[in-house]
Amino acid sequence: MDIRFRSGKPPVVKFSDKERASIVVVLDRKRNQEIVIGHNIRVTVVQIRGNNVRLGIEAPKEIPVHRAEVEQKIQLDPFSQ
Predict the structure, then answer these.
(1) For the whole model, what pTM was predicted?
(2) Does residue 12 lie within any of the structural domains?
(3) How many domains are there within the chain?
(4) What residues pair up with 37 in beta bridges, in sequence order?
């Protein structure tokens, strides 16, 4: 795999201890390509149609997977499930 950076060198990023707790990673993927999170979660780009992207998510049963708006609703009313 050949990884290239626009500047030719990888960026130097410094994080405080608080910022290290979570990080946002932005990746480009094409149809049928995957992203692996940890060792047991796979996200596959299933379809791209205009502004819509359809993802397939393979995760252990004990890890809940929700769209953000559904998760927000659950957080507001955890008994609504």
Answers:
(1) 0.66
(2) no
(3) 1
(4) 41
Closest CA to 65 of 34, 42, 31: 42
Q: How far is CA 34 from CA 11, 17, 27, 42, in A?
A: 24, 30, 10, 7
The span from the CA of 69 to the CA of 75, in Å, is: 10
Q: What is the pLDDT of residue 17?
A: 65
The token pair that represents 69 in the structure block: 């708006």
Contact 40/25 with Cβ under 8 angstroms? no
What is the Cα–Cα distance from 11 to 23, expressed in whole angstroms?
Answer: 15
Domain containing 62 equals: 31-80
Q: Residue 54's pLDDT band (boundaries 50, 70, 90)? A: very high
Contact indicator for 65, 74 with CB cutoff of 8 Å: no
**Neighbouring C-beta atoms of residue 31, cutoff 10 Å:** 11
Q: Is residue 20 part of a domain?
A: no
